[in-house]
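Project standup — Tuesday

K.O.: blocked on the structure for the chain from last sprint. Re-posting the sequence here as requested.
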Amino acid sequence: MIDRSFRKLAPGGALFAALIIVSGCAVGPRYSRAPVPVPPDYKETPQNWKPAQPSDQALRGKWWEIYQDPQLNALEEKIDISNQSLKAAQAQFAQARATVRYNRADYYPTITAGVSATRERYSANRPLNSLTLNPITGKSLPQAETENDLIIPIDMSYEPDVWGRVRRTVEAARADAQATLADLESVRLSVHAELAVDYFQARELDAEAQLLDDTVSSYVKQLELTDNRYKGGVASQVDVAQAQTQLETARAQAIDVREQRTQFEHAIAVLIGEPAPTFSLPVAGLNATPPVTPPGLPSELLERRPDIAANERQMASANAGIGIAKAAYFPLFNLGPSAGFESTTIVNWLSSPSAFALVGASAVVTAFDAGRRRAANDQARAFYDQAVANYRQNVLTAYQEVEDNLAALRLLEDESNTETRAVAAAEHSLALSNNRYKGGVTTYLEVITAQATALADERTAVQISGRRMVDSVLLIKALGGGFDAASLSAVKMESRAPVPSGQ
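H.V.: unblocked you, prediction finished:
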């Protein structure tokens, strides 16, 4: 039977207030970032680097603008608009934010309302049925009854967050959302860096193709000269065949370079969200040199790398998971007040006498579960340990990537200077060999050898220039681009939950 006396609400209200007051504790460890070894400085830090004023070389959001290439800038701007991998990561972040809001709803009671109307005829032969007296025979007769039952119930279910289970769940969801935002920034950094790498590799191939085209033009003239010398009886037919071979080999190399270049053009099309058949990258040479990129201090890397920030937030989520597992050891409280109107007729359905209300509370504790809660707690702690190990490993890998690219830029600069001297020496050697051949002092084999050496050195010089630009991009990626871990706090502000009384 439903108790319809409002005087019965006082004890339930007192219990409700008591549970709210004690909802200030949350079981489980407080989160603190796991310590990692941080070197005092990078081993490959340029000794002659000085900060520009006013920090023109500092990495900001649009870090690719440091290369001062308008065409690269225009392509990079299309990434945030049309890249499908980035859109997928953005959708994943939206899911994580929705999960935070979903879990935050547990801070508040769930209220349901409805209406029901039933008309029921009871069996006259049911047990314990009331009897009527036959006025003629005086015998008792069973009575059939028909009743109406009209109800408008409003029910509430509320679980006070006494042990912090809800708070830990929201904390874990918020940390997961922040980790997802960091993952989004990792994807953003990766696709922007991949575009810059593909762009500079395409430009390096453009420079190689131009070099080979110039070489082909030179070889055509050399073939004409050799053919004229053969017709004049000065050179042999072997010399003509060798000159023809050199020319066709250079033409084949130029075709191969252009084939490679089309692959990068197609890759750029996919990155900016355009079909490969409709996109075309104009040909241009590689005239850029790597800008000076200050690596900063190693400790700053922990805040500038989105992947490290994601690992750190995953640690925070795993730490909250330990609190959720611990909360299972404590009683689960539930408050279920209900109120509404009940009557047998519509006439007085919403009148004061038809009102009813009740307050109920329950507490449930698991007495025996064959070690299930202990297993869940051990699982949560192991998951946290895994997150810590992943975080520390990623930090070590990040330092390695920065050092690798700093070393590569330093060594490639030295190699570029050396190769420049090698190109000059090869060109001088080729000029001497041509003069000796024209003077009849040597065979055409010496000219061919000098041509092959000069072409190889010139192509190597161009390739080194391309590698320097690529490693410059990879260094910026290793440094985190323009990311700042403080931006993750936006998720916390947007998803802030009410603080229970007493906390």
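K.O.: great, moving the ticket to review. Residues 119 and 420 are 100 Å apart (CA to CA). Confidence is low (pLDDT under 50) at residues 1-10, 48-56, 495-503.
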